[in-house]
């Protein structure tokens, strides 16, 4: 049996003037999140971190539990 456990979005940012990266995670988002919705979230995060970080990408993770 497959049981949904949740969906997570992670906005990955490249820090300006550094080789380091930063990830901002959002737990328990709606499973049916669209590409457009994920990119809107990424733009909001990027606006908050303006002059500090540039958007790299958004990673969507769906977790499920598989049992007998």
Task: Describe the 3D structure.
With 68 residues, this protein is an alpha+beta fold. It has one helix spanning 35-48, and strands spanning 2-15, 21-26, 53-66. Strands 2-1-3 form a 3-stranded antiparallel sheet, with helices on one face.
Poorly predicted segments: none
CA radius of gyration is 14 Å
Largest sheet: 3 strands, antiparallel
Strand order of the largest sheet: 2-1-3
Global mean pLDDT = 93
Order of helices and strands: EEHE
Distance linking N and C termini: 6 Å
How does the SSE layout of this entry go?
Elements: E1 2-15, E2 21-26, H1 35-48, E3 53-66
Antiparallel strand pairs: 1-2, 1-3
Summarize the structure.
The protein has 68 residues and is of the alpha+beta class. The chain has one helix and three strands; from the N terminus they run ββαβ.
Descriptive terms for the model:
alpha+beta, 1 helix, 3-stranded antiparallel sheet, 68 residues, 21% helix, elongated
């Amino acid at each position: 049996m497959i049981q949904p456990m949740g969906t997570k979005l992670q906005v990955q940012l490249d820090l300006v003037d550094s080789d380091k990266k930063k990830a901002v995670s959002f737990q328990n988002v709606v499973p049916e999140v669209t590409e457009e919705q994920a990119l809107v979230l990424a733009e909001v995060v990027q606006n908050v971190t303006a002059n500090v970080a540039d958007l790299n990408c958004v990673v969507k993770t769906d977790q499920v539990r598989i049992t007998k």
